Amino acid sequence: MGQAQENQTEEHLYQKRIPIFVRSVRGKFRNFKTGVLLLAYIVYFALPWVPWQRASAADQAVLFDLVSRKFFIFNLVVYPQDIIWLAMLLFIAATFLFFVTGLIGRAWCGFFCFQTLWTDMFMFIEHMVQGERPARMRLYKQPWNMEKIFKLGLSHLLMIAVAFWTGFTFAAYYTYAPELLHDLFTGQANQAAYVTVVVLTATTYVAGALAREQICTFICPYARFQGVMYEPDTLVISYDQRRGEGQSGRALPKPGLKTREERQAQGHGDCIDCGFCVQVCPVGIDIRNGLQYQCISCALCIDACDNIMDSVGYPRGLIRYDSERNLESANPHPPRLAWRRLKVLGYAVALSAMIGLLIYNIGTRTDTEVRIEQVRQPLYVKLETGAVRDRYQVHIVNKTEQEVTYQLTVRGIPENALDLGAVTELRVRPGKALKFNVKIDLPPELARDTHEFEFVVTPQIEGAEPIARKASFVGE
Amino acid sequence: MAQQSNNQTTGHVWDDDLQEFTNPLPRWWLWAFYLTIIFSVVYWLMYPAWPLGSSYTKGVNGVNSITYVATTKDGQQVEKTTHWNTRAELMKETNAAAGVQKQWLDQVAATAYGDIAKNPDLMQFVNSAGKTLFADNCAACHQVGGAGHEAGNPQTNQVGFFAPNLADDYWQWGGTYDEISATITGGRTGFMPAKGLAGALTDEQITNVANYVLSLSGEPHDADKAKLGDEIFHNPAEGGCLTCHSADGKGVPSMGGLNLTDKVWQWVDVPGQADAAAKVDVLRAAIIGGFNHVEAMPKWGTRLKPEQIKLLTVYVHDSLGGGK
Ligand code: SF4
Ligand code: SF4
């Protein structure tokens, strides 16, 4: 065999995709996966259609308005200045991934990743149109006839339809959805919308209907670096080699090998070699070969094996979530979440700190942003009367959805020291910023003694708090 | 059914137990690789790619062309179409930006001076566009923030070049919009004759005039000498200073005569001198040397467009100084 393989090495660099015909399975993990899928689909597809009263944009609850550079998320309006929230969110997402992966492996891949969700959906379509695994395999092998053309055509048509709606929905987050739908089909939408919808339809179809597990195996970087986060204590989906193989290996339940006692007497393990765990695997591997890099931790093989164990009356859990350390130990305990580890706790602390910070930051956001910058060239000038003048640039951002007039005053120095020039009214349009120059003139003695004072900006709206900003005064 | 991974090795064993798994890539990756090669060849043909000595391949005409508007040396606007290159792309983007700026410039041009300053949105444009215009044209003498350039050392008769401070509230040539606009458009040349209008003041007379000038703004001085200086200042046959500095010493803006009664000393650094004697000395040096330098404020009327001058006027008047 070694000889034969060496000769084939060249060919083995590339290979045609081996089609996978996944058998459907029932069980608690399948139910959980279906629940996640339903929830994710409902949220993703319905969200752009939720109406929301808005003063300055389309009445859409979630709208990422790239033209006005504002993100509307229900009551929250996110401005470009709030980009730090995005940075925090990315940090939280990354830390959360590390945290979970260290505990229970690639749970993200198996249950939540959109590659998994959409692949699952497309497999469901195949199942619906072409039938269960044996029927699909038969269809695959049979020559092209009307039945094959019809069934394959119909399932791919349905997949393309889902892919299109996926692409359209994505674009709908960036424009008013009803209008986009209308414009898209009447040829009035803008070029960016068409490009987005076409590209996303194509990528969704290719990734979910054609490439499938190859995305996870060859393309996705997360799949690779989650692997390195596994530790001996991480709960991974594993086949209990000791229990399954016994001394003499797995064996079919032939007469005389039906009960556990009979099998154990002959040294055989509990695995009846039915292959069910391999048939349900969406990446087409055999979990009994141990942990493999292709495994996305979908836990469907656990459901499959549990069903078999139930039917032959052996205890469940031949395939289960367990840690490498426990599986190898001489006297294993029931699998448990080993969270009392420095790394896990460290991630938990970082995660809660960042989530707390983000919530605090969003909770304490203000409707008005005020920045004061002193003009430093020149720092100050002497006036004809001997008074000293400092100049400042005031920057006001109106983060409300109405036009707001602001009043600017000073505290700590005489009111009349503030010179706004000819400007009488500071009015800022919704979501816009205004930058303007002001001058502060102080008589010589006061200028010598004044080092600090405050600008006070008061929005002229009901119940608005004045906002004070410290500024320094340079007299000589 | 074949499996995705059969955990087979290449069959080769190194160092007793080191083996390599075969995890073949999907064949379509290979096709994707060939596709990128085909793409690159098409790209070479369509876009500028290969150097040819002093030139280069320009790509397929019409596929990658960029059209932009350029201004020639004699101010003509010409439309140019060329093959794709970063310079042309920059020109095109500059054209677009200029279009946006033009809307604002037009608004400034169409609005009366006083109304521009009242409008915070317009002022925001004036502040940012004016800052660039000022930095490009005026800052060489007046500095970026308008602080100006003080004279050199009058004592060694090294007056240096002098550019008034535009950030304070004193205006040598007048601080109304019209006066500032006239200053920018036509330029200004300052002049002060050496040793008085007739150029014949004696050493003693000069000391007296210096003391009188100090008295005008309440600086320490010798009252008796100042009294004598007063007469020389106002006598057209002797000092004749009043011609430009006016009888009350407040200066005649149309002549560029400085105000001698206020606290702003732009040319001669009187407040910076330690004692009364030194103050007299710097003033004496100024009167003896006069001001007759070629570094005048140039005429910008021939270099800048009227709307740019208007913008600069508002910028200098409102953003920098706070004019009159
Ligand atoms: S081995 Fe099991 S957990 Fe891993 S991908 Fe296959 S079915 Fe899912
Ligand atoms: S499902 Fe369970 S019993 Fe069946 S082959 Fe897999 S491990 Fe063995």
Provide an overview of this structure:
The complex is a heterodimer of chains A (476) and B (324). Chain A has 476 residues and is α+β, with helices and mostly antiparallel strands. Chain A has a domain at 368-472: Immunoglobulins (Immunoglobulin-like). Chain A has helices spanning 2-8, 28-46, 83-104, 107-112, 114-130, 133-141, 146-172, 177-186, 191-211, 213-219, 221-227, 241-245, 260-265, 276-279, 300-312, 324-328, 342-363, 444-449, and strands at 14-15, 62-65, 70-73, 76-78, 235-239, 319-323, 368-374, 381-382, 388-398, 404-411, 418-419, 426-428, 433-442, 452-459, 467-472. In chain A, strands 7, 8, 9, 11 and 13 form a 5-stranded antiparallel beta sheet that branches. In chain A, helix 5 (114-130) packs antiparallel against helix 7, helix 5 packs across helix 9 (191-211) and helix 10 crosses helix 11 (221-227). The longest helix of chain A has 27 residues, at 146-172. Chain A is elongated, with a radius of gyration of 33 Å. In chain B, helix 4 crosses helix 11. Chain B folds into 3 domains: 2-56, no CATH class; 66-110, no CATH class; 113-320, no CATH class. Helices cover 44% and strands 9% of the residues of chain B. The model of chain B has no long low-confidence stretch (mean pLDDT 88). Strand 1 (14-15) of chain A pairs parallel with strand 3 of chain B. Bound molecules: iron/sulfur cluster (SF4) (2 copies). One iron/sulfur cluster (SF4) binds next to helix 14 and helix 15 of chain A. One iron/sulfur cluster binds at residues 239, 244, 271-277, 288, 304-305, 308, 318-319 of chain A.
